[in-house]
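Appendix B. Raw example, untouched.
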Amino acid sequence: EVQLVESGGGLVQAGGSLRLSCAASGFTVDDYAIGWFRQAPGKEREEVSCIVSSDGITYYADSFKGRFTISSDNAKNTVYLQMNSLKPEDTANYYCSASGGRLCLGWEYWGQGTQVTVSS
C-alpha cells in the first residue's frame, strides 16, 4: 500500500525555520517525483517545490526560491522541505505528493498534510 506521511509542522514565529518530512512507504522515492504543496484557508492549493532525486532535479515556485530547500534521503525513503525565514503568509497545511512519471505533474498519491502556523 502506498502511503505518504507528513510531519514537522507546528507553530513558529516569523523569521523562524521548520523542516517538514514526507515519509514514503509502498514505493521508493528515488523512483518517483515528490512534490510539496500547501493550502491556506479560503485559498487554492499551490505547488511549493518538487524533486526528482534520480535525475538530480529540483523545482521551486518563485515565491519560495531562496527560502525553502527540498531534499531527499533515499536510505530513509523520506523527502524533506527545509523552510527558512518564515512569514505569516506561509501559514497553511502542507502536503506531499508522489508522481510515478518522474515529472513534476500527474500527482497520484497524497499525504494527509501537516499544519504550519507562523505568528507575527
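End of appendix B.
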